[in-house]
Amino acid sequence: MGWFESGWGISLIVFLPLVGAVVVLAVPKAQEELQKAVALVFALVTFGLSIVLAIQFDYGASEKIQFGTSREWISAIGSNYTVGVDGISLPLIVLSTFITVLAIVYSWDHWPEPHNPKMFLMLILVLATGMVGTFVALDLILFFVFFEVVLLPMYFMIGIWGDRTEIRIPVIGKVTEMRLYASIKFFLFTLFGSAFMLLGFIALYFRSGPAGDRTFDMVELAARSDLFTGSFAFWVFAALALGFAVKVPIFPFHTWLPDAHTAAPTVGSVLLAAVLLKLGTYAFIRISIPILPQEALNWAPAIGILAVIGIIYASLACLAQTDMKRLIAFSSVGHMGFVMLGIATMTSIGLNAAIIGMVAHGVITGLMFFIAGSMSHRYHTREMSRLGGNQKLMPIMGAMLGLSAMASLGLPGLAGFWGEFMALLAAFTPNAALNAGLFRTLMVIGAVGTVLTAGYLLWMMQKVNFGEPRESWDGVDLHDVDKFEMMAWVPLIVSIIAIGVYPRIVTGATNGAVVELIKNAFGG
Amino acid sequence: MNFDYHALLPEIILASTVMLVLVTDLLPVKKYWAAVVGIIGTSAALVPLLTLTFCDSLDFCEATGARSMFSGTYVVDSFSLVLKGLFLVVALVVLLMSIGYLEGGRFWQGEYYFLLLASVLGAVVMASSRDFISMFVGLELVTGPTFLMAGWRKGDDRSNEAALKYFIIGVISAAILLFGISLVYGVTGQLRFADVAAAIAVRGESPLLTIGVIFTILGFAFKVSAAPFHFWTPDTYEGAPTPVTAYLAVGSKAAGFVGLLTVAYVAFGSTRGLWAGLIWVLAATSMTLGNVVALKQTNIVRMLGYSSIAQGGFMLVPFGALAGADVTPDMLQKAFFATVTYVLIYAAMNLGAFATIIAISNRIKSGEIRALAGLGVYAPGLAGLLAIFFFSLAGIPPVAGWFAKLAMFNSAIGSGSGWGLALAIIAALNAVVAFAYYGKIVKSAWFDAVPDDVSDAMKADTKVAPSLMLALGITFVGTIAFGVFPSLVTGLSEFASSLSSGL
Questions:
Q1: Which domain holds residue B337?
Q2: Residue B10 in domain
């Protein structure tokens, strides 16, 4: 399999979904079954290839870039098509291709209005290319391109298939449909961040050496991290962090998230939560820390504090929600807060926590959004006060919701536990250069946050699942989990339990890479 | 007087085509034959550009590098080859867009094609001009015919207003430009760019020269519709026939940039301190004003008018960013590279946007953004093209516009000056604002429901004239290819960055 290792394998995983999108485009509009089949085949083959990647991966050398290649791309500005996989990106690539398959399986029989499966499938596939591309790119410009490509399909998904409830836009006061407001807000927020991120990338390039020896290569830039010092490094870190923070999102840049997640169609919310949020946190680990380690330490307290504010704020916001989907959306802000807390500790445990937290959040919150979507599809409402007694009406779905809520609140034995636990553990002994007192305070506040998290999730369970069903549901056709839902959700449940019981599935890949990263960045 | 026929062949072919078009109009054939002759002639004029470019590897051709003629006032170098190629391709696409448009309404056709090609000839001449006289003549040849073309919809008041406004502003800007040139001539006693530069180097700067330089630059600022000299743009764009608007927004604007670049780079290269600050201000105001006002527009073409003002601002950024910088020839070259890259990509995507709008308004019989509603449902192909070109204008990868913006940021930050960085930040903020209105078009076409007044006939009418289809195809391929493989365009713009002074 020489060709697979020489970069073709990764490139195939990145671009096969795009080819799939083109093939779907070529299928006549009326042949929906064929469109679905084509999309599923391409997604499955891509997932299969990513599994091959995971099997072939040399876990003994997970800090090394594997399966990589570098081809000339835009020589005029010194940017190359440089891709590769290491232990940090591997779990996220598998996660992305995995969720893509499930999204298509779920879509099989659940089309949001206004229908048009052809375009919906194409968008899912384009999104897959953007997501995986971001995780494998090792050139800043290439990274930027994939990072932005992700925006387009999601913009269309929210805008076309999104929630049509009318709302009044804050501040402006204009009445518009939720989907229109959420889609443009999502786009403008991200674009704002990424415009500055791009300026930061270019600034790094010009500081990376004398003319003729400049580079956008992330690995090379990390090796030259000594060149980036002083106020230059400060501002570049700020510019990059702005771009990443909007995407994560870190408090106070999170306000697009509840709107976008709530407005998006079910599959859109799932993909947003499961994969798109990880692009920002991944970029912190991949770009900010290795290339600007000193500034990362300087900014770490601020990031840690914002992360913890995000945890507490999101928990309190969750307790104030009446809309089930919006509650889950806010819970994402909190979970990403734990991921950022892990990153802010600048330790190998913290980064391991961040990555396992990312993967766990992907499968858990992905499942929760699937269930919330299916429930609102059946009940035609997301108001938790009207949903009571779900457990009696739909026992299997209720049980699955219960399981995902337990996983989300960090029950040991399920996937969500490790990310939270290890992040708090890392905050107890942060990087030697950081103020341990501060981080221990953050740890205590974060621990309070876990209690609040348990609180709002149990509260949600109580409102939605328990109690007696309302009389208004009498005679309404409320069928329990159907076969497509089953096929999409069972793999998620299996992975939640698997990661919970045996976290080495993730840390086995990440640990070597993370330890090396911390060593290179901070010495020792 | 040396007369290099090979080097002048594009101009000779184009000038002959201009005449042939007029003759064709007299013949008893269908009127669109004038356009066909124009297309054939323009394509033929592209051939000598290729042979000149690849002269080194051809047997019959003697490689000479830059070919200088008429005592160094007219130069065929790699820069002029690339820009001439651009103008000819723009002319081809505009011709293709015009055929269906003119056939569909009551228009004079032969004269239109004659004027259009005459204007293109002016642009082609400008790309080679290396003295103020031929530059000015070329520029007037570009603008003169477009005054008439802007008023081509004779029965429409707005078209008349467009032509009149454009004419008055055009004449004023010509006067300002001439005034500036005369002052420069008065101070330096020279007209050839290279001589002007040499004279300035010897004599140093003087208040009179400063005024001359400023007026010359401002004269071009009118032509490229940089704010605050933009106010003719929206009215003219909205009133003129759409293919003419497309030509004004791309061909005529690019010609203005060619003039600005060669004058600033060759003639005033050593007085950068004078013009860089000025261009900095023009760039910042154009971007900001164009974008902010575009937000409020309800008419698509008018919005594209403001968008083109803003895009013009982005094109000026690389040169404005040199303000306060410690400029080396290498940096000047980088700025040049960035602007040429931007112009090339802008030509592809903006012409595409106009071609799509012509195709769409044939169908929906309206130029309002609101009227695009539901297009994604009943005409997904056109709506898809619309999205591609407008995302490109907004600078979202992977369609071409992103690379234009990247090259622009690259040169602004590469200047290493605080002013350059400030301009880059202003540009970054503007790139975000711009999405708000480009996104509005996409939103209207894709997110809004089909309105009730869209008739079934309108839904069923999938006909797009073959010539327009070809124009869409060319611009679509360009926009996608330049975005995914920017090397295609950087190859051209790097080649174009070596500008010969003619001596």
A1: 5-496
A2: yes
